[in-house]
């Protein structure tokens, strides 16, 4: 119970605040088993952001009730991000001016009493509301300069404000669905005995793909460079003094060596100036690409990872079933709306498994995630479906009950070309040996089979060298899974035959030296078979939301300007 007042009158009982905060999370009120009705009469502190507001004054039934001092109530719809639902909050104008609390985006922390909703309005039916007794904190907005003041802004316009758009209701639902999907996949892997491992984002391998990669170059502040150079000179001087005291002969030899080093350093500095340019004439004088990359990575250039499959395989060859999660980078100006320069991916690798085994694992994982979302986050899915009036909720629910359609690459090409020819679609037919682009695959999913599709056994030229070559020597043991949003999973069986693996490396013109460490996995205690898959988490969330552009599901998308 709350403390009694000085008068001895008992105040309303307090609700239980959430752990680590002095406020009550709105989800615990709005998604209570009885809709929050059991909390009526209790005192609560809530905080959030105003998404909608209006003024209300008590109706006047007779001239005798006309009183200029009758207060105006600000009726606020407040959301704190924990749920797609909003809590109605009534703020008396004697507590705070309506002009301060009503603008969209206003942040408010308020204490009050929960009661049955007395007013209805807006898109959401109110069952419970909070009557404010004290405004504890108020974060006002600049009315004339608030980019999110308009309601129902198109997704395209929201992309211009990535730092603010999560406060809008659609983007809030997207972030919660992303969280729900991540919770589901973590639970799936843990329940099925997978170990989570951490793998590098920076590495020296090309990783078997042909698209561009981001090279890591060390850049330092010019003042920092000068200071570091001075410190190095002082260190050399101290070292020379010690050498003089110990052995003059050694000192002479060292002086000669240092002379060579200084000459080499001078040449490196001159080369660095050629690469970077004269800092006095550089438009970015404060930051320069100092030639110190070799100090951090002396052996060879390093890059941001496009995937962690090869490193993950090294862990699976010791730990069995493993998975990892992190950002992946691809320096390619994609025209597809499914991809970004930076994408977050989940990768799994399983020892002693064939492609069919890992395909089943990926299949079960996707069904598990979809069922988790349907059971725990369906309100967010419904919320995103309302503006378009789509039946996406039903499609998502059907994924949990209907099997996916599985067909080979050859069969997929045949089906697509037959349909395109017979129906005279204005799209070119596909040639064997070319990748099946997302547009064609999505056509199979949404129009032909009306369910997710698995395409397997691709031509070897469209997959990396480490994917196992099939007996026909033309295709490899790989598979892709497509949802309505596009490709969400890429899977494969690794090539375990050392001679075939080396031949594939030479066939593709890849540097064998670069992958000697990977070849060691085959040379020393390799498993008979091991397989893995990559789940594009951002692409999956795109499908769960029913959107068609990855920029609308990534908080801060990194996309080329060409997009």
TrEMBL record:
Which residues lie in Basic and acidic residues bias regions?
252-276
Does ATP-binding appear among the keywords? yes
- Give an example GO biological process: asparaginyl-tRNA aminoacylation
Q: Which keywords fit this entry according to its UniProt record?
A: Aminoacyl-tRNA synthetase, ATP-binding, Ligase, Nucleotide-binding, Protein biosynthesis
Domain Aminoacyl-tRNA synthetase class II (D/K/N), residue spans: 283-558
Q: Where is this region: Disordered?
A: 225-282
Q: Which Pfam families match?
A: tRNA-synt_2
The cellular component terms of Gene Ontology attached to this UniProt record, alphabetical and capped at eight, are: mitochondrion
Q: Which domain of life is it from?
A: Eukaryota
> What one GO molecular function would you report for this record?
asparagine-tRNA ligase activity
Extract the InterPro entries matched here.
Aa-tRNA-synt_II (IPR004364), aa-tRNA-synth_II/BPL/LPL (IPR045864)
The name on file for this protein is: Aminoacyl-tRNA synthetase class II (D/K/N) domain-containing protein
**Source organism per UniProt:** Cuscuta campestris
């Amino acid at each position: 119970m709350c403390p009694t007042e000085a008068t001895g009158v008992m105040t309303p009982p307090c609700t239980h605040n959430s752990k680590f905060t002095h406020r009550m999370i709105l989800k615990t009120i709005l998604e209570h088993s009885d809709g929050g009705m059991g909390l009526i009469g209790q005192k609560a502190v809530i905080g959030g952001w105003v998404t909608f507001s209006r003024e209300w004054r008590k109706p006047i039934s007779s001239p005798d009730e006309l009183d200029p001092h009758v207060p105006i109530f600000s009726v606020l719809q407040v959301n704190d991000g924990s749920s797609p639902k909003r809590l109605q909050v009534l703020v008396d104008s004697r507590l705070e001016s309506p002009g301060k609390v009503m603008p969209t985006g206003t942040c408010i922390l308020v204490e009050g009493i929960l009661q049955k909703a007395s007013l209805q309005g807006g898109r959401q039916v109110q069952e419970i509301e909070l009557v404010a007794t004290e405004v504890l904190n108020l974060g006002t907005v600049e009315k004339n300069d608030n980019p999110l003041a308009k309601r129902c802004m198109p997704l395209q316009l929201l992309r211009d404000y990535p730092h603010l758009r999560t406060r809008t209701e659609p983007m809030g639902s997207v972030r919660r669905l992303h969280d729900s999907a991540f919770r589901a996949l973590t639970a799936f892997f843990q329940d099925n005995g997978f170990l989570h491992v951490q793998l590098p984002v920076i590495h020296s391998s090309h990783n078997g793909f042909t698209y561009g990669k981001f090279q890591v170059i060390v850049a330092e502040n010019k003042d920092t460079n000068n200071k570091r150079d001075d410190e190095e000179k002082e260190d050399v001087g101290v070292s020379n003094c010690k050498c003089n005291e110990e052995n003059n002969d050694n000192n002479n030899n060292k002086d000669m060596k240092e002379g060579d080093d200084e000459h080499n350093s001078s040449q490196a500095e001159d080369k660095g100036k050629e690469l970077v340019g004269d800092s006095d004439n550089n438009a970015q004088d404060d930051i320069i690409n100092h030639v110190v990359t070799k100090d951090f990575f002396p052996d060879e250039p390093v890059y941001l990872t496009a995937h962690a499959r090869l490193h993950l395989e090294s862990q699976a060859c010791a730990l069995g079933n493993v998975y990892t999660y992190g950002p992946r980078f691809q320096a390619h100006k994609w025209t597809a709306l499914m991809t970004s320069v930076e994408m977050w991916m989940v990768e799994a690798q399983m020892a002693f498994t064939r492609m069919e085994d890992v395909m089943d694992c990926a299949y079960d994982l996707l069904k598990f995630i979809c069922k988790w979302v349907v059971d725990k986050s369906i309100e967010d899915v419904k919320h995103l479906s309302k503006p378009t009036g789509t039946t996406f909720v039903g499609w998502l629910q059907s994924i949990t009950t209907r099997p996916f359609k599985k067909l080979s690459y050859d069969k997929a090409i045949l089906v697509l070309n037959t349909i395109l020819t017979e129906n005279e679609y204005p799209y070119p037919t596909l040639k064997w040996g070319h990748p099946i682009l997302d547009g064609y695959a999505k056509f199979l999913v949404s129009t032909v089979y009306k369910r997710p599709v698995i395409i397997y056994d691709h031509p070897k030229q469209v997959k990396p060298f480490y994917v196992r070559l099939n007996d026909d020597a033309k295709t490899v043991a790989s598979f892709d899974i497509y949802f309505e949003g596009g490709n969400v999973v890429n899977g494969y069986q690794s090539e375990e035959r050392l001679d075939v693996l080396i031949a594939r490396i030479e066939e593709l013109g890849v540097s064998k030296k670069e992958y000697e460490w990977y070849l060691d996995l085959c040379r020393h205690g390799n498993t008979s078979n091991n397989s893995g898959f990559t789940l594009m988490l951002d692409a999956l969330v795109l499908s769960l939301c029913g959107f068609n552009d990855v920029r609308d599901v990534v908080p801060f998308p990194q996309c080329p300007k060409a997009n």
